[in-house]
Amino acid sequence: MSNARPASPSTPVKITQSPLPGVLVIEPRVHGDARGFFVETFRESELVEAGLTARFVQDNHSRSRRGTLRGMHYQLQHPQGKLVRVSRGRVFDVAVDVRRGSPCFGQWFGMELDDVRHQMMYVPPGFAHGFLVLSEEADFVYKCTDYYHLASERGVAWNDPEIAIRWPEIGAPILSTKDGQLPSLAGQSELPVY
Fold first, then answer.
1. For the chain, N or C: smaller number of CB within 10 Å?
2. What's the predicted TM-score (pTM) here?
Protein backbone atom coordinates (compact mmCIF):
# COMPACT_ATOMS: atom_id res chain seq x y z
CA MET A 1 0.00 0.00 0.00
CA SER A 2 1.40 3.37 -1.03
CA ASN A 3 1.23 6.63 0.90
CA ALA A 4 1.34 8.59 -2.35
CA ARG A 5 -1.54 10.98 -2.95
CA PRO A 6 -3.08 11.22 -6.38
CA ALA A 7 -1.68 14.07 -8.43
CA SER A 8 -3.93 17.09 -8.62
CA PRO A 9 -4.91 18.25 -12.08
CA SER A 10 -2.39 20.74 -13.33
CA THR A 11 -3.48 24.14 -14.47
CA PRO A 12 -2.30 25.01 -17.95
CA VAL A 13 0.43 27.52 -18.54
CA LYS A 14 -1.05 30.98 -19.12
CA ILE A 15 -0.02 32.62 -22.40
CA THR A 16 -1.25 36.14 -23.14
CA GLN A 17 -0.71 38.58 -25.97
CA SER A 18 1.09 41.75 -24.86
CA PRO A 19 -0.02 45.16 -26.16
CA LEU A 20 2.62 44.69 -28.89
CA PRO A 21 1.32 42.08 -31.40
CA GLY A 22 3.48 38.97 -31.51
CA VAL A 23 5.16 39.57 -28.15
CA LEU A 24 3.78 37.00 -25.72
CA VAL A 25 3.83 36.85 -21.92
CA ILE A 26 4.08 33.29 -20.59
CA GLU A 27 3.26 32.41 -17.00
CA PRO A 28 4.29 28.85 -16.17
CA ARG A 29 3.00 26.69 -13.35
CA VAL A 30 5.18 27.07 -10.25
CA HIS A 31 4.97 24.29 -7.67
CA GLY A 32 6.36 25.46 -4.34
CA ASP A 33 6.60 24.08 -0.83
CA ALA A 34 8.90 24.28 2.18
CA ARG A 35 11.75 22.74 0.16
CA GLY A 36 11.68 25.36 -2.60
CA PHE A 37 9.99 25.22 -5.98
CA PHE A 38 9.73 23.33 -9.25
CA VAL A 39 8.87 25.02 -12.55
CA GLU A 40 8.67 23.59 -16.04
CA THR A 41 10.37 26.21 -18.21
CA PHE A 42 9.62 24.78 -21.66
CA ARG A 43 6.89 22.52 -23.04
CA GLU A 44 6.63 22.68 -26.80
CA SER A 45 3.10 21.29 -26.96
CA GLU A 46 1.66 24.13 -24.83
CA LEU A 47 3.36 26.78 -26.94
CA VAL A 48 2.12 25.14 -30.14
CA GLU A 49 -1.41 25.01 -28.70
CA ALA A 50 -1.15 28.78 -28.12
CA GLY A 51 -0.05 29.30 -31.74
CA LEU A 52 3.70 29.61 -31.15
CA THR A 53 5.14 27.06 -33.56
CA ALA A 54 8.71 28.42 -33.68
CA ARG A 55 11.51 25.86 -33.63
CA PHE A 56 14.22 26.69 -31.09
CA VAL A 57 17.80 25.82 -32.08
CA GLN A 58 20.07 27.56 -29.56
CA ASP A 59 20.06 28.27 -25.81
CA ASN A 60 21.97 31.19 -24.26
CA HIS A 61 22.78 32.19 -20.68
CA SER A 62 24.25 35.49 -19.47
CA ARG A 63 25.11 36.73 -15.98
CA SER A 64 25.19 40.46 -15.36
CA ARG A 65 25.50 42.81 -12.39
CA ARG A 66 23.09 45.53 -11.29
CA GLY A 67 22.77 48.38 -13.76
CA THR A 68 23.97 46.38 -16.77
CA LEU A 69 21.93 47.10 -19.88
CA ARG A 70 22.29 44.64 -22.74
CA GLY A 71 20.59 45.71 -25.96
CA MET A 72 18.82 46.62 -28.07
CA HIS A 73 19.84 43.78 -30.41
CA TYR A 74 18.42 42.05 -33.48
CA GLN A 75 19.76 40.04 -36.41
CA LEU A 76 19.02 41.14 -39.96
CA GLN A 77 19.59 38.16 -42.29
CA HIS A 78 19.16 35.51 -39.60
CA PRO A 79 16.35 36.95 -37.44
CA GLN A 80 15.97 35.34 -34.04
CA GLY A 81 12.81 34.82 -32.06
CA LYS A 82 13.69 34.62 -28.36
CA LEU A 83 11.92 32.91 -25.46
CA VAL A 84 13.46 34.74 -22.50
CA ARG A 85 13.39 34.29 -18.73
CA VAL A 86 15.38 35.05 -15.58
CA SER A 87 16.68 32.06 -13.60
CA ARG A 88 18.21 34.24 -10.85
CA GLY A 89 17.56 37.87 -9.99
CA ARG A 90 15.37 40.50 -11.63
CA VAL A 91 15.48 42.44 -14.92
CA PHE A 92 13.39 44.86 -16.93
CA ASP A 93 13.00 43.19 -20.33
CA VAL A 94 12.09 45.10 -23.51
CA ALA A 95 11.05 44.31 -27.09
CA VAL A 96 10.87 46.95 -29.85
CA ASP A 97 9.19 46.38 -33.23
CA VAL A 98 11.85 47.39 -35.80
CA ARG A 99 10.15 45.86 -38.85
CA ARG A 100 9.90 48.49 -41.57
CA GLY A 101 6.25 48.78 -42.67
CA SER A 102 4.82 47.36 -39.44
CA PRO A 103 1.82 49.24 -38.01
CA CYS A 104 3.65 49.03 -34.65
CA PHE A 105 7.03 50.18 -36.00
CA GLY A 106 9.10 51.79 -33.25
CA GLN A 107 6.71 50.76 -30.45
CA TRP A 108 7.99 48.94 -27.40
CA PHE A 109 6.76 46.63 -24.66
CA GLY A 110 8.59 46.04 -21.40
CA MET A 111 8.03 44.08 -18.20
CA GLU A 112 9.91 42.85 -15.17
CA LEU A 113 11.05 39.25 -15.23
CA ASP A 114 12.30 37.60 -12.05
CA ASP A 115 13.09 34.35 -10.28
CA VAL A 116 9.94 34.53 -8.12
CA ARG A 117 7.08 34.61 -10.63
CA HIS A 118 9.14 32.89 -13.37
CA GLN A 119 7.28 34.68 -16.15
CA MET A 120 8.74 34.52 -19.65
CA MET A 121 8.46 36.68 -22.73
CA TYR A 122 8.52 35.60 -26.36
CA VAL A 123 10.15 38.21 -28.60
CA PRO A 124 9.45 37.45 -32.28
CA PRO A 125 11.95 37.77 -35.14
CA GLY A 126 12.14 41.34 -36.40
CA PHE A 127 12.08 42.85 -32.91
CA ALA A 128 15.03 44.42 -31.11
CA HIS A 129 15.51 43.04 -27.62
CA GLY A 130 17.32 44.13 -24.50
CA PHE A 131 17.20 44.11 -20.72
CA LEU A 132 18.34 46.09 -17.68
CA VAL A 133 19.48 44.29 -14.53
CA LEU A 134 17.62 45.47 -11.40
CA SER A 135 18.97 42.98 -8.82
CA GLU A 136 22.57 42.67 -7.55
CA GLU A 137 23.14 40.02 -10.23
CA ALA A 138 20.89 38.31 -12.73
CA ASP A 139 21.13 35.13 -14.74
CA PHE A 140 19.24 35.60 -18.00
CA VAL A 141 18.49 32.54 -20.13
CA TYR A 142 16.81 32.30 -23.50
CA LYS A 143 16.00 30.01 -26.37
CA CYS A 144 16.54 31.27 -29.94
CA THR A 145 14.83 30.30 -33.20
CA ASP A 146 17.99 30.86 -35.26
CA TYR A 147 21.71 30.69 -34.57
CA TYR A 148 23.79 33.68 -33.58
CA HIS A 149 25.28 35.18 -36.75
CA LEU A 150 27.86 37.91 -36.19
CA ALA A 151 27.59 39.41 -39.69
CA SER A 152 23.80 39.82 -39.26
CA GLU A 153 23.94 41.40 -35.80
CA ARG A 154 22.44 44.88 -35.57
CA GLY A 155 21.13 47.11 -32.81
CA VAL A 156 19.26 50.24 -31.84
CA ALA A 157 20.31 52.75 -29.18
CA TRP A 158 18.81 51.91 -25.80
CA ASN A 159 17.95 55.57 -25.24
CA ASP A 160 16.60 56.45 -28.71
CA PRO A 161 14.28 59.42 -27.98
CA GLU A 162 11.85 58.46 -30.75
CA ILE A 163 11.28 55.02 -29.19
CA ALA A 164 11.32 56.52 -25.67
CA ILE A 165 11.59 53.34 -23.61
CA ARG A 166 10.73 54.11 -19.98
CA TRP A 167 13.58 52.27 -18.26
CA PRO A 168 13.47 51.96 -14.46
CA GLU A 169 15.58 54.60 -12.71
CA ILE A 170 18.88 53.14 -11.54
CA GLY A 171 21.37 55.78 -12.67
CA ALA A 172 23.61 55.56 -15.73
CA PRO A 173 23.49 52.02 -17.17
CA ILE A 174 26.59 49.88 -17.64
CA LEU A 175 26.96 49.32 -21.39
CA SER A 176 29.39 47.45 -23.59
CA THR A 177 31.37 49.64 -25.96
CA LYS A 178 29.36 48.21 -28.85
CA ASP A 179 25.97 48.86 -27.20
CA GLY A 180 27.01 52.39 -26.29
CA GLN A 181 27.58 53.18 -29.97
CA LEU A 182 24.38 51.77 -31.47
CA PRO A 183 22.50 54.16 -33.79
CA SER A 184 18.96 55.44 -33.42
CA LEU A 185 16.12 53.66 -35.22
CA ALA A 186 15.90 56.58 -37.68
CA GLY A 187 19.62 56.13 -38.39
CA GLN A 188 19.25 52.51 -39.52
CA SER A 189 19.95 51.89 -43.21
CA GLU A 190 18.81 48.26 -43.06
CA LEU A 191 15.89 46.93 -41.06
CA PRO A 192 13.76 43.77 -41.06
CA VAL A 193 10.68 44.04 -43.27
CA TYR A 194 7.14 43.49 -41.93
1. N
2. 0.91
